[in-house]
Write a structure and sequence with these properties.
The structure is a single chain. This protein is an alpha/beta fold. The protein has one domain: pyruvate-formate lyase- activating enzyme (Alpha-Beta Horseshoe). It has 13 helices and 12 strands. It has helices at about 20-25, 45-50, 65-75, 80, 95-100, 100-115, 130, 150-155, 165-175, 195, 215-220, 240-245, 260-270, and strands at about 15, 30, 35, 60-65, 85, 115-120, 140-145, 180-185, 205-210, 230, 235, 255. Helix 3 packs parallel to helix 6. The chain starts with 12 loop residues before the first strand and ends in a 13-residue tail after the last helix.
Amino acid sequence: MLGGTMKEFQSFLKTVGGNEGNKCHYPSRLDSYGCGCAHDCKYCYAKSLLKFRNLWHPEHPAVANPRKVLRELAFMNPKQIGVLRLGGMTDCFQPIEKDKRITYQIIQGLNAMRIPYLIVTKSAMVADDEYIAILDRDLAHIQITVTTTDDELSKTYEKASVPSERIKAIEKLQALGYDVQLRLSPFIPKYIDYDILNNVKCDKILIEFLRVNAWIEKWFRLDYSAWTVYENGYKHLPLSVKKALIKKITGFKEMTVCEDETTAYKYWKEHFNHNPDDCCNLRL
């Protein structure tokens, strides 16, 4: 529960605090499935926070009770909730959703309560016709994450839908008039074919550069010699490097950067982001 006594990482419904919560415009999070994600991405910051606590179980994630979490939301002040993010520590459209359909039920409940929601996923499932049928264009905001434009490469470090399927899902939602974004997160420059990226038929892109802690550095093997800025337990690329890399992304009408490191956060907010007051750039 938000603000409750349950341990932070064991709660399906919570408000993110600390450095992330202070910067994020949408800190209220609901995970349909907790303490594990079948996508099991090697760069996942949530995995790095949960695994050493023995709270990461990708094969058998905990399953939320939709009636319980919707009942909790019903007693909350809508202003406290704001836009509810579906998928904070885990993906709400991981494969177990095909069987349990918890996210499906939660979306139906949020629609009934008129609570806006932000879906963040690496799955093309969100654009399946059965979900299109219930996604409310006035409430739903969808960010589909792409980390590479190479399907085969993606299989070596994440177990989600391959990128080509995610891009098709993005373009389908865009054509249907949804508030959808390609979320380049984490942005790993050498994994991107910019000709493919810049020709995705989507108006908006959100970029989040790879941040690295000791666990991610161990699991996700890259040359991290350029990650020379250290803050809050993570290594970051210098802002000058990020600014040079972002110039290669040219195919979108609206661009925004989600940033954790303070100096870069201030720069993107003041000089780059399409909406300086909302780095998620939602259509509200």
